[in-house]
Amino acid sequence: MILRTPLTVIFSLLLLSAPVYSQVDDPHTVDRNQMKLNEAFIMITVTSDRGSSFYKVMTDRSERPYLNIKDLMEQYLDFTSVSCDPVGKHCQGTMQPSRNIFWINGKQSEYGDAEQGPGGEKIPEGAFVVQDGSCWLRYDIWQKWLPLTATWDYHAYYLSVIPEFKLLSERKKMREREIELSAAATREKDAIQNSAAIKPDDIFRPELKYHSSLRKYPQQDVGWDFNYDANIDILRGTFQTGGPVTYDKIPGWNAGRPYWVYRLRDQGWFYLMEVGDTYFEESNLLLPNISGNNGFRFDSREMTYGAGRISVNGRAQQNTVVDLYRDGFYLNTVTTGTDGRYVFDDIVVNSSSRLVAKLYFPDGSEELREIVLSDDNGMILPAGVLQERVFTAETVYGRMNYAALRYGLFDNVTIGAEPMFFANSKNPSFMADLAMRPMADTVFLGQGMFTGKNIDRAFRVNTTLLYPNYFEVEHRFFSNNTPAFLRNIRILGEYWAGRHSLSIGRFQFIDEYEQYKGMRDASVEIIYTFNRYLKPFFNYGAFFPQGLSRYNVIKVGFDVMPTDHSVLEISRTWMTPIPINLITFFVRNIINVGGWDIGITWNIPDRLIKSYLTADVMYRITKNLSLGVLSNDQYLGFRVNWDGIISQTPGPETWSDFAMGTLSGKITSPKTTDAEPYPVQNANIVIGSKLATTDENGNFNISGITPYQKLIAKVDPITLDASVAPEKEFDVIYFRPGTQITWMPKLLWTAGIDGTIEGLDTIPPDLVVEAIKLPDNRLISKGKVESDGFFIVEKLTQGRYRLKLKGLKEEVRSIEVEIPENTNWLSGIKWKLGDKKITEPKKEENTNNKNTNKKIAVQPEPPSSKKYYTIGDGPLHITQGKKGSKGLDGYISGDRKIPSGLMIEAVSMEDEKVVSRSELMRNRTFIVEDLNVGKYELRLTGVTDPPKPIQVEIDEGVEWLSGVVWDWSY
What we know:
It is built from five helices and 71 strands. It is mainly beta.
């Protein structure tokens, strides 16, 4: 198959001479029986970068053009390895980047390409001609042979050829753009890591979130539930607590044990330190993942999940519904208990898997948590890096005390030593481990634990050597003297497991084999993704208990996911003693008013046993109130929920943004010499993926920002008046849960430069001047170079710049200019490419500092004559107009080329009459006078595809409206 991307190449064919019959007949290259073609010279234009040149074609008696195969393919269509044999009547060339070979054979009258295979399409008689030592092909056959379109206008002698593949020049531009974007992303990433982040400075900032529910479960009495969660930012750490209070007729009031934890993160010398209800997690090899109460945890580095079989653990509020997805495939749902913990056991993943937990809180809010997976076991450190870990907590099996030191011996080898003490054990235990990557595709983890006389051991090997296949082998051995703490969780004796996964195309294949204490089992899971909405699956498990007969469990079904918040799963499970048919459907979108939270399960056995239906349907009436119906078989119940949040101001805009970050602030204009700064309205503030717009007072407020991440906050310069720009490209912001940061970005008046390029014979149509700010080498703005060498670059601020030419085939000398403080415009730069010096530009004073109000700038009383002198951006201008007239000025933004002769019309919206006309100036600015109080529609005339008209209003008391921005983009 050929990837065909439209790209317009126009051949403008202008016949410059009358047809002349060729007088040369080469007996080696001309068939005496074939017709002779007429020779003609035409003007050919191929894309805007190549310009125009005279070109020779052949025409038949109907004056249809024949094009030189080798010349057109090689010189204009960028084919490589082009060859033509006039004697053999054979031509071929390779199209890049697909490397498909296109061939044409005049002797056999066929054409085709390598991807199509042997054989080809027939060439019509007379369409392929050999003459003057070259092979010629009629224009209309090109579009049948190559991925392009050709249209011939006989009367105008005009041929349009539109290739549907990327030409070399276009591919170079794409590659340059990719390099620019990659470099910008790298610079941004480095800037984030190297920048000191702005952090919250509140000493004490609390938030309270609560969920109250009056409910009646089917066949039960009416009861009441109240769940609360408190988040307090204190001492640059986060304290969180919460718990349930319930009332039922029997046993009455009950207050469950509240969870609590105080957490410090990202403190420079450690990643995490927390006190309270905490969780131990590691490789899950000898030591299991386990939760504990009233504990202490310290991690110097972030822990990651390794490939293989893992357990996903986390904490949320009580009664939070958590759905787990692997590679977009729904796996399972759990609901958190009073401690807020959720656990998904025995999830098989590889390093390329994408594991996502979707959390739906009781109040309707939601959160997406992506599980970080490493390509190893998560325990290989960089060379020379030391990792420290401490954990102690009360678990259901007693207190566990653990410490660890790991050291990156080499880049791919890490050693560790871990002393520990378990409850009900007389002796301490000591564990040593070795994590290594002996080759690029293989990872090994080995552990040995010593407790008195016993030695427990385990190892795990992961490999993707046969990519995309993933293989894992795991072995564990626990002796009879293993501490009782571990015997409660682990199986004594030998344990072996083998796991394999394969993801190829739309198929995902996962299989596993386990053997322990004479018990063996094997399972296979196959998933096929038709599309993002439909995923059928097949699960098979075979179990071989010692001394008992084998039994199988087979499950077949499919998932339908019409939206990101809904799943319909229909399955059939064959198992002993009764096969089951199961239909599950849920919709979770209750965060919005009018949203639904639906959970339905219908269990249908094969035999004459009554089917079982459970349903939980909730509807959000207002932001805080939702009403629901509960069903269990034929019995019904109900539930009424009230949700709320109490927070300081400025805080979350909605109660669903609990324990998140809030960014607020104000944007004002730059300082002036004789007036106070005024608020900037309708400016966009962007932080991460969130956006807000300033109000009429210049204020903004963004809540629900993810904590514990460095995020870029910036003012979108496109939404600012052209006369101002942000002082800094961005700031780095870092939030803790429930914190607020006041951010006041500073704006500066902008300036511009103009000049001429000298020393070029021809100015390419896409030549631009780039202004790069020194010393950080950041691209600030671009300006197009006109055909006479004149250029303008705007939206610059004070400082030093390097000017570079972009769009020439050869590198040319750059120059440096400096815009001093309070300078509005540098005019008259003479950029002589062969000289080492430039003509000193003329400096214009920054009149912005004299404006009392940039939005409404009152003009001085003008004399009767009028003349315009545009000297800058915004637009900034000196004007002389009719005495007493009102007016406006503005700027055409966008990337469209501005031709001469365009006019601006101001049309009264009251009577649709044209009130005033003025010319659009060369530097994209315009001034419209002779206006009165009222509403006007501005229209651009003189062009076939004008921008959309815009509406402006001149209020009573306003003499001049300045800074109108009119977008005209492609």
